[in-house]
DNA sequence: AATTAGCCCAACCGCAGACGT
DNA sequence: TACGTCTGCGGTTGGGCTAAT
């Protein structure tokens, strides 16, 4: 048996709100507030509406400082970035856009932004963390003043051929977004641009690789520098949670003896997840995706494959068996904590990375 | 001018978690 | 602890508008 309906639908008005209803609701809320009970509100206010309908009308349309229409380029990028990192968590995404409602953002994404994105006209980028636990995550992310900050705030959509010229890479998608660095990054980073878009690896020598995460083909230009990453998993047991591209979440646990990693993925699409996590004195570098390591069940080809393309170039023959490469990265220094906030994340000291050897999951 | 197709977005629906008793 | 109620959320729907034919 399902739950009881919140109101008798035959006795309440439905459909578009009239200006009179709007003003009645506004007047009532300005005088009385919700009194903590939306269900009882319409009766008190003299509205023939369901409480949920009143709440929605207020939150999405009538409440002060709501912005409608005309999303700015900045807003586009914020939405894309956060959608990449956490999927359709519209309320959280909207909380980073003053004046925007989750409904607005959702509609905008579904009707316009997704298409823009597919056309390569706008991009999002992930920074080096995935801790979307706070509503002001983005603000923190964008305002980092740490000298180890990696990304110049400028993100370009100029054709990648220019990029190729500067960085001697084989670029795969002419319309791929670019991340422009103001200075060589102090350590390798991995980013993922969009769900099934491409990933970029930048290493300490400022080499940049692009990896396609096209579900049907996978190409990439360069991957060797990842082997310079760090290594010893010294932590006692720790867990790290992050989001995955389709809105599910993933967790990574380091075993007590630091000898192994366990990865778990609860997203709706991908049946397995594997990846790489390394640690040095500065923190843990994690990169995990359902395209790294193996075995990987490929829903698109209905097959299982394995291969570790992060190991070194020797493994390159396995690459064609991999599917979407979704890379996430963060530098938390978790210690024994079971959870972390953004404040815990800090980049490892410069120089340490290069002394280490790869530890491959 | 009439019709059709597609788009946009406000509103609705139902689920899940929080909260109170 | 169990249960019922309320709220918040994400997915979906459908009416109105506009562009295309």
UniProtKB/TrEMBL annotation:
Residues in HTH myb-type domain copies: 9-62, 63-117
Cited Gene3D superfamilies: Homeodomain-like
InterPro entries in UniProt: Homeodomain-like_sf, Myb_dom, SANT/Myb
Keywords: DNA-binding, Nucleus, Repeat, Transcription, Transcription regulation
Subcellular location(s) of the protein: Nucleus
Key word Iron-sulfur present: no
Cleaved signal peptide residues: none
Gene Ontology CC: nucleus
Transcription found in the keyword field: yes
Protein origin, superkingdom: Eukaryota
CDD domains: SANT (cd00167)
Listed GO MF terms: DNA binding
Annotated ranges, domain Myb-like: 9-62, 63-113
Name of the featured protein: Uncharacterized protein
